[in-house]
Amino acid sequence: AQSVTQLGSHVSVSEGALVLLRCNYSSSVPPYLFWYVQYPNQGLQLLLKYTTGATLVKGINGFEAEFKKSETSFHLTKPSAHMSDAAEYFCAVSATGGGNKLTFGTGTQLKVEL
Amino acid sequence: GAGVSQTPSNKVTEKGKYVELRCDPISGHTALYWYRQSLGQGPEFLIYFQGTGAADDSGLPNDRFFAVRPEGSVSTLKIQRTERGDSAVYLCASSSEVGRGYTFGSGTRLTVV
To answer: What are A23's strand-pairing partners?
Structure first.
């Protein structure tokens, strides 16, 4: 079974500041890990994913995340926040060998202030 | 199509009524998923189709919920005897390959009054 914990349901940063959204996972098998973004009244959009290989993955809109097995973490970062980054972000995990069912965290609402 | 299409975008129904929610996946995507997102929560898995068959329906909450995908493309999620607790956004997603992440539709917001 898999589970995801996202620390901080709301995060607020200033425009231009570092964005750090935390995600810890639990999985009994090697995981696939994902970050999705959801803008108001829209579906979820894939930001980035880790399946195998390089543990630092780069995604769209300048976001990246690092898979740290020893810490069971997959934190999302962006060096410089932009107003357009304001949205809800979801971390998700699925099991390798199946990779079918995503288990999502409860989400982190990112607010970007001037 | 270019993306995953869900209809209707909004549905208001009375308690006890039957509803159908439709999902049209990206052309050629063999895998199709239904999720339910309640207010303030992350999406929760309902059911997964590979082709025409339900490969995993472990997330369906009870026997009032049923989904079909008769020709391996369009899928319909059916809810009988709706309850107020069924109110949520129902999301559909499709994928061409397991593990590569899904493409989600914009969802159907179901409100049971």
So the answer is: A6
